[in-house]
């Protein structure tokens, strides 16, 4: 059967309008840069490195964080205004966005990737959402004390067994949330764990949850393999005789570093990084650094730890070699280095330099600058390989 001239012409026009080949994008090579003051993000390629697109309309990102779907296609952005935004990294667009609270500071994604948990300041509590539709599945008010007050929720992480763990800042509690049935989560509460837990970390194997304490010295440690043993208070003697300096920015424990038997954490109000033996949970070394550390972040192989600092030393980044716990490099990338993120195998590190409106990429072996990208007041940097990590 012969095709008419008009039909042949139509087929030709349609086929010529399509690209000869579609541009393919591998999700494992992507990342997101938060532009905090403009309520926007950039999607970046972590290998080139390069900026691929900018997405606006994400609200207040002054304290934003991100988790990724299991397939690394979607990024879930937790905004300070209570916004929860699902970003399609392949189509460069907002897939869904809701306002779920008045003030939120972070979240996590469940072990099976089906549930998003959000930690809220206002109202204090945790909410669970379906990761596909963002339908609310459950609300867990952070009620504490005889007066049933609401506490700010901090240090929310995912844990094995379809669980989440979080801390109550005013409530002085740690909660272990079993979300196997996300519409009816079961909460186990550990009370009087220490004054004002401000952030927390989960060890890479999901075994231990450690909450940093702002109201007193030390850390509160929960063994998730044996939660019936309760919470242990560790490192309560460190720095107790030292002069306490004003705290210009709360340090973050979620940028944890566990390398072999060592855990490295920022000291609150001191110019130190603490080295803890995780076999006995004892302090073995205090490393003097250039300022009050904010993030103490390990290269994926555990050989190096990169440290950034609070004001007035936030133009500085220092590198600690864990072979002998010595500082091997001090860099000056620019004013207000807010966040650091390593490439998946650690050959490079990306730094958000807020007051210079740029992201800088360094080679972690030579410490030479590899690239710089323009960004509007960048803060958090998040790469999609986080999708395959526990507690991130």
TrEMBL record:
Cited Pfam families: Cytochrom_D1
Keywords noted in UniProt: Signal
UniProt keyword Ribonucleoprotein present: no
Keyword Signal: yes
SUPFAM superfamilies noted in UniProt: C-terminal (heme d1) domain of cytochrome cd1-nitrite reductase
Lineage: superkingdom: Bacteria
Gene3D superfamilies associated with the record: C-terminal (heme d1) domain of cytochrome cd1-nitrite reductase
InterPro entries according to UniProt: Cyt_cd1_C_sf (IPR003143), Haem_d1_sf (IPR011048), Host-pathogen_enzymatic-act (IPR051200)
Cleavable signal peptide: 1-22
Protein name, as recorded: Protein NirF
Protein's organism: Methylomonas methanica
């Amino acid at each position: 059967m012969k095709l008419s001239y008009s039909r042949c012409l139509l087929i030709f026009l349609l086929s010529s309008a399509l690209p000869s080949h579609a541009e393919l994008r591998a999700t494992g090579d992507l990342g997101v840069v938060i532009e905090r003051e403009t309520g926007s993000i950039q999607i970046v390629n972590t290998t080139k490195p390069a900026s691929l697109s900018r997405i606006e309309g994400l609200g207040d990102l002054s304290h934003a964080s991100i988790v990724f779907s299991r397939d690394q296609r979607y990024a879930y952005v937790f905004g300070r205004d209570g916004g929860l935004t699902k970003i399609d990294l392949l189509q460069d667009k907002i897939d869904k966005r809701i306002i779920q609270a008045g003030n939120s500071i972070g979240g996590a994604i469940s072990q099976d990737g089906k549930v998003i948990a959000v930690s809220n300041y206002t109202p204090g509590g945790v909410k669970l959402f379906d990761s596909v539709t963002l339908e609310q599945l459950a609300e867990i008010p952070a009620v504490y004390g005889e007066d049933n007050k609401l506490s700010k929720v901090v240090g929310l992480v995912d844990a094995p067994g379809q669980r989440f763990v979080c801390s109550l800042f005013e409530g002085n509690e740690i909660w272990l949330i079993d979300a196997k049935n996300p519409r009816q989560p079961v909460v186990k509460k550990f009370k009087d764990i220490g004054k004002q837990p401000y952030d927390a970390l989960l060890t890479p194997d999901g075994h231990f949850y450690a909450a940093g304490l702002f109201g007193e010295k030390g850390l509160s440690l929960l063994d998730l393999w044996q939660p019936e043993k309760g919470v242990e208070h560790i490192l309560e003697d460190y720095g107790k005789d030292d002069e306490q300096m004003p705290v210009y920015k709360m340090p973050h424990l979620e940028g944890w570093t566990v390398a072999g038997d060592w855990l490295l954490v920022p000291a609150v109000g001191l110019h130190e990084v603490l080295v803890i033996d995780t076999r006995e949970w004892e302090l073995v070394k205090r490393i003097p650094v250039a300022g009050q550390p904010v993030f103490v972040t390990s290269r994926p192989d555990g050989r190096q730890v990169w440290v950034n600092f609070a004001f007035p030393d936030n133009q500085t980044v220092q590198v600690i070699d864990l072979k002998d716990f010595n500082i091997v490099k001090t860099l000056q990338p620019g004013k207000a280095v807010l966040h650091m993120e390593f490439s998946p195998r650690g050959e490079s590190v990306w730094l958000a330099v807020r007051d210079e409106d740029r992201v800088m990429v360094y080679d972690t072996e030579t410490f030479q600058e590899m690239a710089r990208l323009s960004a509007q007041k960048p803060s958090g940097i998040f790469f999609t390989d986080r999708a395959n990590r526990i507690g991130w």
